[in-house]
């Protein structure tokens, strides 16, 4: 009986499925040629130590959560290319046939690719530079884009409806700076205006007494 119970427990463990609750953040994994890894919080596991870093291939059942995360950070991050390959053999950094040390590891490091922060952008965007309408090459439809300048001097472009959600006050400031005020007409302009309305041959409306 004990053997049967052990087999049942092992079978239940093998059949257990983990459900992604939320994508927390992402990073570029140097160990896998700059592949993007996502920090995953699993449903039912509240400890931070239970979170894991997963590649996109392991998140096939969490596409909606991935797309939501990409939307929060302003678009899908692009994987880095040409990452440095691991050296096989000794880890000492000294060639087996030479005493000359290799280039220090810190010089091989690259700055992580910058991405817009999650959440509100109100305190991070310096100014909305311009708004343009372009044809989306993927859909062939017209799309309005907002060009942003950030406090760190980075420049990015995003769909206009996305910027409305992320920094509505910055969009309001942009529109206010592009308003045109119509001044009241002077006497001569008012006279011309009335002449156009009451031109000869056009009957005037009379009030009934």
UniProtKB/TrEMBL annotation:
Classification via PROSITE patterns: CHROMO_2
Intracellular or extracellular location(s): Nucleus
InterPro entries: Chromo-like_dom_sf, Chromo/chromo_shadow_dom, Chromo_dom_subgr, Chromo_domain, Chromo_shadow_dom, Heterochromatin_chromo-domain
Biased composition (Basic and acidic residues): 75-84
Limits of the Chromo domain: 18-81
Classification via SUPFAM superfamilies: Chromo domain-like
Domain of life according to the entry: Eukaryota
Entry keyword Nucleus: yes
Keywords: Nucleus
Gene3D superfamilies reported in the protein's UniProt record: 2.40.50.40
Region Disordered, annotated ranges: 72-121
GO biological process: chromatin remodeling
Gene Ontology cellular component terms for the protein in this record: nucleus
PANTHER family reported in the protein's UniProt record: CHROMOBOX PROTEIN (PTHR22812)
Subunit-structure text: Component of the NuA4 histone acetyltransferase complex.
Protein name as it appears in the record: Chromo domain-containing protein
Record organism: Amniculicola lignicola CBS 123094
């Amino acid at each position: 009986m004990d053997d049967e119970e052990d087999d049942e427990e092992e079978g239940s463990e093998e059949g257990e499925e983990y459900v992604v609750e939320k994508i927390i953040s992402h990073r570029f994994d140097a160990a896998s040629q700059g592949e993007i890894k996502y920090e995953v919080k699993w449903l039912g596991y509240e400890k931070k130590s239970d979170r894991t870093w997963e590649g996109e291939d392991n998140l096939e059942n969490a596409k909606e959560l991935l797309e939501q995360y990409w939307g929060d950070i302003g678009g899908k991050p692009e994987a880095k290319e040409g990452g440095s390959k691991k050296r096989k053999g000794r880890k000492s950094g000294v060639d087996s046939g030479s005493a000359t040390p290799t280039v220090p590891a810190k010089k091989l490091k690259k700055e992580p690719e910058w991405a817009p922060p999650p959440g509100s952008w109100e305190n991070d965007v310096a100014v909305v530079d311009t708004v343009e309408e372009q044809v989306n090459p993927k859909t062939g439809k017209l799309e309005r884009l907002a060009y942003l300048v950030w406090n760190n001097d980075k420049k990015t472009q995003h769909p206009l409806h996305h910027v409305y959600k992320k920094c509505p006050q910055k969009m309001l400031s942009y529109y206010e700076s592009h308003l045109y005020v119509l001044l009241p007409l002077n006497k001569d302009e008012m006279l011309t205006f009335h002449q156009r309305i009451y031109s000869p041959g056009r009957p005037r409306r009379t009030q009934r007494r």
